[in-house]
Structure formats: structure tokens, C-alpha cells
Amino acid sequence: MRRLGATLGWLGLGRDVDGNLTLGVHSGIPAIDRFREAQVEGYSHNGIAACFLGNKAENERLLTGEVLEAIAGICAGRRMFHPEDPVPMNKQVMESEQYQVMVARIKETSRTLREFLSRYYLPFYSMRYQGHMNWDVTLPAIIGYFTTMLLNPNNVASQVSPATTMLEYIVGRDLCYMIGFSRDPEPWSHLTCDGTVANMESVWSTRELKFFAVAVRDAIADADSLERKPFPYADPEVQDALRAAADIRFTAPDGSAFCMLDERVDAWFLLNLDCDSILSFPRRIAEHRKGNTAGDKDVPSLERRVWTCLLENYALSVRGFYPLCIRLAADSVQMPAVIVPSSKHYSWPKSTAILGLGCQSGPDRQGMLNVFVDANGRMDMAQLRQTLEACRRNRMPVLQVVAVIGSTMEGAVDPLREIIALREELRHGGDGPFMDFNIHADAAWGGYLLSAIRRPYGLTDEPSAELFDTDGVLLSDHTIEQLQAVRHCDSVTIDPHKWGYAPYPAGSLNYRNGLVTNLVTFGAPYNGNDRGGSGPAFSIGESGIEGSKPGAAAAGVYLSHSILRPDRTGYGQLMQGALFNAKVFFLHLLRIAHEFDVKGTGQFRPYVLGAGKQFHAPEFWADFWRSPLIGQFMARSISDAAFVAEIAKPEQYPLIRALGPDQSTLAYAFNLRGNRDPGVANHLNARIFEYLYPHKWTEPLSIESFDMFVTMTTFRLGDYGEDYVCDFARGLDVDFEPRRDTEINCLRSVVMDPWMINTLEGAEDFIGSTLIPALLKAAEKAALCELHS
After folding, report:
1. Is the preceding peptide bond at 185 cis, omega within 30 degrees of 0?
2. Residue 34's closest CA among 16, 46, 49?
3. What DSSP letter does each residue of 749-784 carry, written as one string?
4. φ and ψ at 377, to 5 degrees?
5. Which residues pair with 341 in a beta bridge?
6. What is the C-alpha separation between 746 and 128, in angstroms, rounded?
7. How far apart are CA 102 and CA 735, in angstroms?
8. DSSP 187
9. Which string of b and e fits 150-162 if b means at least 16 CB within 10 Å?
């Protein structure tokens, strides 16, 4: 079983004279960045219109034509492959009764399936769907997926997916460069079925990484004491290299020098070494054996063999947890933990549970440490500092701290830049021993927001110091700062099948230092090699959790990225449209609350996260309410359509770019006039949700009866802490008592639609004319039921 990753080092991404990409020995790969010079800056309704089927299937002819072309091409290819071969179907077979019966069955069951789907499908494509993180997918993604699906490649190995393995590699590089990762060390990315598996792999790889430092120390110790026990790896040069490595002076995170066999190098010390240092150990050992000649042509060969020795004999994945638990206990070190914010996705407790760390916090259960969020839904930095200091005092190593870049329920972006600064501070020790941990950005939802600020780039361009352009972007300074810091994380989850508008399944895990994949690689002999027996195959599926996976997913993302580049000129335009619509939605909810509070009109008072005074500085709100345009909108002295047309002008962006949540997910709730009981408010919002989302799956859905679709979530005190839940309750004007009350129900709208203010008629406020009345109608109906219950 091969344990060393085969996807790095020998693969060189280049470009041929025709502008196509080259990958190792492969050439003529259609360039994913071929149109980067032809994009037009600025939000373009007409250009984006060609990229989706459309609310009323306006691009049916385009999609149908491309699908038929794909089928014709596949069929022609089959006919051309060894035309002399016999065929199992001839005219006689096709005219037989058995054949005709089977054809009739296929047509009948296909029709039945279409009818069944039509009864139970949800209109994700519609402007009225403002519910889950689900919307229309791009036509290029559909065409790429459909075309490749007919070939059914399996991206577990290049032998069964030669084309789509290359496409996945290129898509991965594209995502790494959208993030802005440096090219030294070389980054790595691969597609996963979803963000859950990507997050899980990030914990697994980080656990293997941190314990790899222990593996290196133990291997050096064994090599240094060969007279007492035999060395487990039959390669004299590797033995000599590891024996000599006892003299290497490595550098700790605090800048101090150490040798692996120093007395102070215990389990705590090793588990707090930094990512890049740990991954450089095999290279350092090989260079030291060769006399520190980094350019020696024999160094890569020895380095590879050192990796193999360590992975096959000393890594945690080989030895198991038990001997290492004994080792930790001997050094008075506790089992490691992962720190997450209370806005975490549910994949995080899954991940720590599956990996045996435990998924709950408590006196005897500390595998996943939960840090409450502040009133804005962002990780509370004061509590994070306290948690990390407690871990250091108690000698509990921290594998990783997770920062959520676009939380699924709150629409919040964690203070990543501050988390990175705190790690840097702890690396230097301060009042205690140095401490290090990996930082993972869970940007499964918000990762494509990077495209809104990313300058255009090519995959083979020289790295640029100017990665981002934030001019005119509808994001707050806070969100922009965190997005710019993502490139400093050790790993990043981004889901193309969310805000990348790609078909399922298409998540991704992106590593800043691609060498970490060596720690999670498990090869198989039958996957073979494609280098004439001289080395392992170029295979993506050997690294990570998954095995078989559809090459069609890579093709779908590849084609979508080819047409809509993940920068300001492509996907960034989609982000801008969705962000603008979310801010218009927010303004409408704010106007209802304003009329309720100031004018005393209306039966319902909404509160939406982001409207609280703590979300922005007082001067922001002062400037906002002083704006004549906002005043006209609040007083309804300007039509909604005219307001939207005016607020959409770039000169108005400074007024609204920081307005609302950190991205385009709106968390809001309604309360009845005069009600102070949080229980009544909870029931009201639960009923609104019932009227605005199908629940009865035992009978065909009548989606035409729904004027709008939203979802609901619940903020629980035990998960979120008092700051967030109590502040949200205050916004609703209910008497929330933490010793009595435990949760607040909240409606949620994920705005992914870029169309709602762009129609053939020009600027039209579909939100104000259609969605808000539908929302209030459901609230009125819910209120009547609540009053009579």
C-alpha cells in the first residue's frame, strides 16, 4: 500500500504556444482562464443572463442545443471506436417483442419519474425562493456535468479519468489562486462531495500533521539507538540520515533552536510546532545527510524515502492512538482538541466524533471546544483567548481553530485576522510556553465572496503582490479584511455547489501547504501508474477521505469557471448582485421596523441581525439616517422602484455597502405589537415558516400556493451564549430571561438571486412589490392563529 502522495512535485502547470494549459507531460488542455482578458468590469445583467436557464427557461434553446450536441458527440465517438467490432443490437433485435416491451417500460418509468419530481420539486430557480443555500446552477456547469456524466469517469485514479483528473487538478489550482495562496509552499486542492467531508478531512489531516512531529522524533531516536533495537525500515541511507538528524538544529515557533533529542522536547513541545516546520522535516533530514546541499539532485530521492519510512512505520495512522495516548499521559499532556465557534456547521461535531476526539465540551469531554459568538454572530475573541490560555495551562494541545467565513444561520464572518494575530502572539510564548495550532477557514458558504474582491489572474501568471481590489464592493470593511486574511489559513473549505452555482456534489478542501496530503494518502496497486513504472500515478483520489467520485463534478466546475472567472469580472458580478438584493431586502425589513417604532403603524415588528446598534459605530447609523434618500424611502415619498434605481448607483454604495449582515444571509424574526413573551414570538415565527415552506411530504406539493419560500432556525442559549441570544431577543422587544427561556426562533433567507432588481423593464423592486407583501401576509395569517390558539 503506497502511503506517499503522488500528486506533487513532478506536476508542472504550464502553457503551450496556442495558449492551452500543460500539466506534466500532458498538453492541449483547454485553458480555464482563456477569457480572462475578455471580461468586462462591472455588473453586467446581459452577460450574466446567458449563464443561467432563467426563471421562465428563457435559455431553453441554448441548453437543449448543447445537450443534444453532447449526446451526438458521445454517440459519434462510440461509432468511431473500432468500427469493425461486432454490435449486440441489430435491426432484428430492435424489432423484437422483448426489445419493444423494454423500450416501452423505459419510456413509461421515465414519464412516471418526471411526473413524480414535478409534484415534489421546489422552485430553487425562482426569485420567490429565498430559503436554503440553493438556487439555480450555471448553464456551463450543467453542460459540463451532463456531457461528462455520459462518459462516467471516476476521479479516484487517472487510469479511469485521464481527462477529468486533469480538470480537477486545474479547478483545484484555480480555487487556491482565488484564495490568494502563495506558490511557495506549493498549495493543493481537491474536490469533495461536500463541505462536511472537506471539514472532516481538515481535522484528520491536522491531527496527522501534529502527531507527525512525534513520529519524526521517535524515528530519530530509534535510528540513534540501533544497538538496542532493529530499525524498522530496510534502507541504510535513510537510517544514516535519521541518525545524523539528531544533530540538526530546528527552529521552534518562538524562534528558539532545538534538536529532536533535547530533554525539553516532550509531547507538548512537539504537538505545538507549526505546520510548515513539521512538513519540512523530511527535506531538512535529506539535505543534512547530503551535506546541506539543497540543490543536490539526490536530495528529492532521499527525501521521498524518508517520507515513506516515517509514514509506513511511525505516523499516527499506522501506530494508532493507544501508544500515543500512553505517550501523552507520560508527559502529562491531555488529548488534543478542536476549537469552533457556536455558529459552527453541524459537520464539526460529526468530524470530531468520527475521529475519536469527542464532540461535546465538559469536564470529561473536551474534544471539541465551543466558543460563544458575540452579539453580531462572530466568534467572541475574548472567550477564544480565555479558551486557548486554559488549554495551555492544562497542557491540552489544540489541533485547529475554526473560523467560519459566512455562517449558515447568522450570515456572519468570524474575525479571522484577529485569530491569526492571536496565534502569532501565542507562538512567541508570552506568559507561558509557546503554543501553535492550525487555522481552518470554513468558507463552504462564503468562499466565493473572494471573487468579489479578487483581481483577474491567470493560472500560469507570475504571482502578483496586488491580489485584491475592493473598490465599489458591497461588503463591509470587516468582511473585506477577513476575506483578505483567508490566504494565511492552513486549510480552507469552499463549496462550488453553494455560492459557486455548480451542481452537487462539489465541495473542496484547499491546503496552503500541499505537502500535508502525504499524511492522508493511501494508494492501491490496481490504480497503477502512468509513468512507465518509474513512479506512482498522477492520482487525486488516493489523498483524502473519498475514493470513487464523479469526474462530472470537476468538469462542471471547470466549465463554469471558464466562463465566469472566480474574480471581480466573473463570479464577482454574481456576488455583487446577490449582495445588493440582500441589502434591499434588509432595508425593507428595517422600514417595517421603523414604521412600527416611529409611526406606530403595523401589527408586526421585525428584527433582523445587523440592525442592532452594536453592529456598527454610532457615526455609521447617524450618517445612514441623515441620508435624504434613506429618509425618502422610509417616508415612502419615493417609489420603491425609483429608490432601487437610485441606490443601485455606484456613488450610493458607501451608504449601503456595510449595511446588514456580513454577507447575504438574513436572519430575522417578527413579534406582535404589545407582546413581551418570547414563547409567543417563537410560535408566531414557527407558524410563518409553516406558511412559507412546504411541510406535508405525504401528499403532492402545491408549490403554486406558496408566494415565497423561507427557512427557519433556532438560536439556543446553550449553544450561543447570552450575548447573542439575549441581544436578538432585545431586538424583538421580548422579555427573555436566561434562567427561564432557552431559545429564540428565527426566520432565514439566503439571497443568491442576482436578478431581483434587474428585469427587462429595468430597475424593479421585486422584493418590495412581491416578497415583502408575501412575508407580511404569512405573518398576518400566523398572528390570527396565534391569537385564537
Report:
1. yes
2. 16
3. EE---S-TT-BTTBS--HIIIIIHHHHHHHHHHHHH
4. 85, 10
5. 371
6. 19
7. 66
8. P
9. eeebbbbbbbbbe
Name the residue with cell 503554543.
435
Q: For residue 464, what pLDDT is reported?
A: 83
| Antiparallel, parallel or unpaired: β 250-251 and 257-258 | antiparallel
Contacts of 378 (CB under 8 A, 6+ apart): 341, 343, 412, 413, 414, 415, 662
C-alpha cell at 20: 492551452
The alpha carbon of residue 748 and the mean position of all alpha carbons in its chain are separated, in whole angstroms, by: 20
The pLDDT assigned to 206 comes to 98
Closest C-alpha to 271, from 214, 324, 316:
214
What does the alpha-carbon distance between residue 301 and residue 286 come to, in Å, rounded to a whole number?
9
User: Residues 6 or more apart from 722 whose CB is under 8 A from it?
Assistant: 738
pLDDT tens-digit map of 596-648? 887 777 788 889 888 776 677 788 888 899 999 999 999 999 999 899 989 98
The C-alpha atoms of residue 391 and residue 712 are separated, in whole angstroms, by: 35
Cell readout for 340 is 469552533
Contact status, residue 510 vs residue 504, Cβ threshold 8 Å = no
Helix runs in 721-759, H state only = 722-732
Distances (CA, A) of 730 to 716, 723, 735: 15, 11, 7
The reported pLDDT for the residue numbered 532 is: 38
CB atoms within 10 A of CB 787: 10
- pLDDT at residue 427, as a whole number: 96
Burial status of residue 93 (CB atoms within 10 A of its CB: 0-12, 13-18, 19 or more): exposed
Task: Point out which residues pair with 154 in neighbouring strands.
Answer: 550
The single residue listed with the C-alpha cell 456547469 is 141
Within 10 A of 79 (CB to CB), how many other CB atoms are there?
A: 9
- 369 and 361 in contact (C-beta within 8 Å)? yes
Residue carrying the nine cell digits 476521479: 155
Read off the amino acid at residue 602: G
CA–CA gap between residue 410 and residue 664 (Å, rounded): 10
Q: From residue 377, give the alpha-carbon distance in Å to each of 145, 610, 720, 725.
A: 36, 9, 9, 9
pLDDT tens-digit map of 677-723 = 999 999 999 999 999 998 766 566 678 889 999 999 999 998 898 88
Instruction: Let me know: does 171 contact 558? Beta carbons within 8 Å.
Output: yes
d(CA 35, CA 458): 10
- Per the confidence metrics, is the pTM higher than 0.85? yes
**H helices present in 150-229, as ranges:** 162-179, 195-224
The 3-class SS string of 421-437 reads HHHHHHHCCCCCCCCCC
Rounded alpha-carbon distances, angstroms, from residue 456 to 459, 501, 559, 575: 10, 19, 17, 15
Dihedral angle over CA of 538, 544, 550, 556, nearest 10: -90
Q: Which residues pair with 337 in a beta bridge?
A: 398
The one-letter code for the residue type at 431 is D
- Coil, strand, or helix at residue 492? strand
Pull the grid cell for residue 196: 462536511
Backbone angles phi, psi at 446, to 5 degrees: -90, 5
Task: Please confirm whether the linkage preceding 341 is cis (ω < 30° from 0).
Answer: no
Task: Tell me whether residue 64 is exposed, middle or buried, using C-beta atoms within 10 angstroms of its C-beta: 0 to 12, 13 to 18, 19 or more.
Answer: exposed
C-alpha cell at 281: 522535516
6, 536 in Cβ contact below 8 A? yes
- Residue 357's contacts (CB-CB under 8 Å, 6 or more residues apart) are 203, 207, 335, 336, 337, 338, 367, 368
Instruction: Report the phi/psi class of residue 180: left, alpha or beta, with left for phi > 0 and alpha for psi in -120 to 50.
Output: left
